[in-house]
């Protein structure tokens, strides 16, 4: 792993390699659910491929992006997509600046332009929440050209050598829409599943070090049940999300586990039958 990381960093921007980067994952960064996933994503990024992360809410997609940003010592510019996302939110906007009694119009770079010019990591979250007509402006940026023409300034921007793109989607969620094929085909895609077994325990112990082992055991047992019910279609995927499990464990340090699970997991579900099922599963593990 050490030699791989060194080679990958060398392929990146010849950035200084730090010993502490080797320990990033063990110190609260992203924990890969299988031996190859994290390494393969690093290789694809090193080859300047735009990356599409597919997975349910709470599976660690944003944490993965943050870990890569830290590993490469590369600042991250973020775009949170919604139906209201427009070109200004992506590229920037014009504003009037007054100085020495004179008013001038200046352009304030948005996250996309900033990342392109400075060689930052661009993270586009929930890209399938954006209106399809908003994103074609990024097409030339995401293919071999790695450039775009800013419609607000007519400036032709060629991406910095270190510039890279990570985007994330939650498939099948309310408010999302299928990605346009012309956009999707510009990405290399990776599925990001929920953590299981010892990987999940590691994350829980790191996130809530004050939690006692029996409480963690209860949350682990419940997680397995929730995952099975979600796989059978009886629960929404987010019921088994790592984020929700961490929230429940943090609450369980200060209150009974059953109440913690109710607040952190069950009450977030829209369907009453699903809420009742979560509480019933919890009751089987809480004595």
From TrEMBL:
SMART domains annotated for this entry? AAA
One Pfam family in the UniProt entry: AAA_5
Looking at the record, the residues that make up the AAA+ ATPase domain are 47-198
State what protein this is by name: AAA family ATPase
């Amino acid at each position: 792993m050490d030699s791989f990381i060194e080679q990958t960093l060398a392929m990146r921007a010849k950035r200084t390699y730090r010993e502490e980067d080797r320990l990033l994952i063990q110190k609260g960064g992203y924990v890969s659910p299988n031996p190859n996933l994290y390494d393969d994503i690093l290789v694809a990024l090193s080859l300047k491929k735009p990356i599409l992360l597919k997975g349910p809410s709470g599976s660690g997609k944003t944490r993965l992006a943050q870990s890569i940003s830290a590993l490469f010592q590369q600042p991250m510019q973020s775009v949170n997509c919604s139906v209201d996302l427009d070109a200004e939110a992506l590229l920037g906007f014009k504003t009037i600046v007054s100085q020495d009694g004179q008013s001038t119009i200046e352009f304030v770079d948005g996250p996309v332009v900033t990342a392109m010019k400075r060689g930052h990591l661009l993270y586009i979250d929930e890209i399938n929440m954006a209106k399809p007509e908003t994103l074609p402006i990024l097409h030339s940026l995401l293919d071999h050209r790695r450039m775009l023409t800013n419609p607000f300034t007519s400036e032709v921007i060629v991406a910095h050598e270190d510039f890279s793109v990570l985007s994330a989607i939650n498939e099948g969620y309310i408010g999302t829409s299928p990605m346009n094929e012309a956009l999707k085909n510009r990405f290399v895609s990776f599925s990001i599943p929920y953590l299981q077994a010892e990987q999940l325990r590691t994350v829980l112990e790191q996130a809530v070090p004050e939690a006692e082992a029996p409480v963690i055991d209860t949350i682990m047992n419940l997680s397995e049940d929730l995952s099975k019910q979600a796989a059978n279609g009886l629960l929404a995927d987010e019921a088994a999300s790592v984020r929700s499990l961490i929230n429940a464990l943090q609450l369980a340090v200060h209150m009974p586990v059953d109440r913690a699970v109710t607040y952190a997991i069950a009450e977030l579900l829209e369907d009453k039958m699903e809420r009742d099922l979560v509480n019933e599963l919890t009751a089987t593990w809480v004595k």
